[in-house]
Amino acid sequence: MKRNVLIIGAGGVAQVVAHKCAQHNDKLGELHIASRTKAKCEAVIASVHAKGAMKVPGVFAAHAVDATDSAAVAALIRETGCQIVINVGSSFVNMTVLEACIETGAAYMDTAIHEDPAKICETPPWYGNYEWQRRDRCKAAGVTAILGIGFDPGVVNAWARVAEGMMDSITSIDIVDINAGSHGKWFATNFDPEINFREFTGTVYSWQNGGWQSNTMFEVGQVWTLPVVGDQKAYLTGHDEVHSLSARYKDADVRFWMGFGDHYINVFTVLKNLGLLSEKPVKTAEGLEVVPLKVVKAVLPDPASLAPNYTGKTCIGDVVKGVKDGKPVEVLIYNVADHKEAYEEVGSQGISYTAGVPPVVAALLIADGTWDVGTMVNVEDLDPKPFINLLNTMGLPSRIKDAEGDRLLTF
Amino acid sequence: MKRNVLIIGAGGVAQVVAHKCAQHNDKLGELHIASRTKAKCEAVIASVHAKGAMKVPGVFAAHAVDATDSAAVAALIRETGCQIVINVGSSFVNMTVLEACIETGAAYMDTAIHEDPAKICETPPWYGNYEWQRRDRCKAAGVTAILGIGFDPGVVNAWARVAEGMMDSITSIDIVDINAGSHGKWFATNFDPEINFREFTGTVYSWQNGGWQSNTMFEVGQVWTLPVVGDQKAYLTGHDEVHSLSARYKDADVRFWMGFGDHYINVFTVLKNLGLLSEKPVKTAEGLEVVPLKVVKAVLPDPASLAPNYTGKTCIGDVVKGVKDGKPVEVLIYNVADHKEAYEEVGSQGISYTAGVPPVVAALLIADGTWDVGTMVNVEDLDPKPFINLLNTMGLPSRIKDAEGDRLLTF
């Protein structure tokens, strides 16, 4: 039994986490939110109260913290008495927040792999570079650390584990992420442009034929036919979950596919080829040192500003192939989310919604002990059933489509 | 009779001017070159000596000057005893250099309209905003100031004057500028990206039906069939010479067309729509104030670096229509230049070459008194014949194509 939640970060995903925590504060206890800018946290809390989202009267307090400072985060954990930390700040702060959890014994969650701002696409498996090096220390300290518990990574890892239970062996896991929504801007990224573009500028790693395969972004594309969103072109993309799932399913091919329209690819290609996505500083003729990528971020729309006008749906699914009783089997497990519904419920668009709900579900499972495992895990290491059942009731129903039809996935 | 030339600027065009002045230093006297960075001037002079371009032994000296400081430029003019100033620095320094010429009595030339760095595309006629406001003072001081004596503006203005002499009245002047060359880079601008993009981000002004017509860039396109380069798509573009020619030929339509490939237009459109061509500062998440356009300039190839590998040809022409003896007539006057030949002769690509040769021809005509008119003029105000004859011998032959065929234009 753990209680009281500290949310790190105050962006679009943090907004969803805050609303969902508030909707379940009877089980989670006191709520706290901290980021570098306290005013951003206060705005999130104000939006929670504006929606009347607090299930029962209780604390929801804002704090300023520099999350790159482990000691400051640890002090805040102690001061607030939080036993559960949901880190949805920048991926650059993951390790300092995790260290604070190891020091204080609080449970840790994040939704994306740790990144060093100075490096792009390190060698695989990416979890091995930072997170897994701290696994033994989590175990020794009895600290529950659930890595990558957003949607992808996160729910898609749990689905792989469900599929594992349905087959004798898995031969391939293809995770397909399609955003068929429209934000109405000429161009925008759906989350922090700096993180968004970094995902696509490095080597694309996939796990195939028992080893890492390297490609470049937009080199390998394929049209996928999915429920609701229909035929969608998606491209082989490097993604967190490939790096943990390939460790568990060594004999399977593990690939991640992200949908992109031609317009996105064109803008990305122009910016990349000109050198404007570089994180290395350039010097202007006037002698000013500046990182091009940070200027691109500065001119693009703030992803949070997209939510009010976002329409359409997302579809994220696992296409898992394997063998059952000597015969080939295939299953699609998926979710469809709606941007407008998400905005109406929690004030964020669908992509933030799908990333922000799962860690709150996990927080509830840690609070009641189900997932309070006292060590560092990726999501596929945990029993997926209680997680999927609770997701079904909290806005992100899982559906399954196989030879027997298309139906709600429930246990 | 005027002697001794001061070149302001040390870029690609200045390089051409330096070489061509050296080739005629028997008539021009001492040569001087000045820019903010003295080392750049020294590099230009070194390239002149490396080619053995000095016709007779003589002075060619480098100087550092801040050309935005009129007094400093005037002091340099006095110190060097230069009576002819060829200003091929940034368009931002035109008025301060002109003021220095008015103060010292030196003849002034430039190749592009003055620009205020804080403004893009002021109201037409552009010459009326800065240059022509100083016409009376030039006249009073007996200062010869030839505005826009590059290729376009410059040679194309002289061609319009030639066509004027061949017709009873002119009904339209279409100036078409095609670069059919290839620099081999994924993307680059042929001259300073800051100036290049500024040309295309504002309103496109053309003179039609006796008034200014406004369009946006790439809104009006047309395929032109030209000698050597063949069919080329060009777009209605705002350009200096439209602003002076429309004053002389009020009853004619005066338009400027620049050739662009789809790739250039795509890159330009992406950068413009994202806000990366803005001259207004943005603030990064880290609080750094930076002008996006200056960052774009910093990541693009230095135009001077393109020269060694530039291949192919440029074709610039005036399509002039009018009436002669009651019948419609049409003439094309044009030049074809070769990037590689330009580089071999003077170490610059063809676009710098076409811009840099004409002011040196004009300097020779000022030196021998032919064009030393003692007032401010645009090129169409001057007798074009000696200019075109001399251009024919100095690397930029004019050709004429009309009902009588295609031949060298000479007088």
TrEMBL record, chains A, B:
Its domain of life?
Bacteria
Saccharopine dehydrogenase NADP binding domain segment(s): 5-146
Which InterPro entries does the record cross-reference, listed alphabetically?
NAD(P)-bd_dom_sf, Sacchrp_dh-like_C, Sacchrp_dh_NADP-bd
Where do the Saccharopine dehydrogenase-like C-terminal domain residues begin and end?
150-395
Write down what this protein is called.
Carboxynorspermidine dehydrogenase
